Amino acid sequence: MIMAHVILERVFDPPLTEERHAAFSEKLSPCLDRNGITWIRSHLSLDRSRLICLFQAPDAGAVRGALRQARLEHERVWSCDLLEP
Predict the structure, then answer these.
(1) What domains does the chain contain, in order, with CATH numbers?
(2) Which of 37, 56, 43 is nearest to 9 (CA)?
(3) Which of 64, 60, 81 is nearest to 72 (CA)?
(4) Which of 14, 28, 49, 73 is deepest in the core (most CB within 10 A)?
(5) Does this model's pTM top 0.85?
């Protein structure tokens, strides 16, 4: 199966705490596993108000489905091409 790179964008108000991040990860991880999704990396803004995550997944719909299963909000989920030097 060909896997896509998928971006998740999420905004936090108030800013994301370590405790909320741990709870977010705990809820999402089993849903990612069930949907054949691999977390690659995340970037958290210095003010902890924006999070960008990169996944390898069948498609963006699979990531959206995992987020629904985990009952987690998000702003955007979209497939992308990975460009590296």
Answers:
(1) 4-80 (3.30.70.3090)
(2) 43
(3) 64
(4) 28
(5) yes
Tell the burial category of 82 from Cβ atoms under 10 Å away from its Cβ (0-12, 13-18, 19+).
exposed
Per-residue pLDDT tens listing for the chain (85 residues): 789 999 999 999 999 999 999 999 999 999 999 999 999 999 999 999 999 999 999 999 999 999 999 999 999 999 999 888 9
Q: Cβ atoms within 10 A of the Cβ of 72, count?
A: 15
User: Hunting for tokens 């977390």 — which residue is that?
Assistant: 39
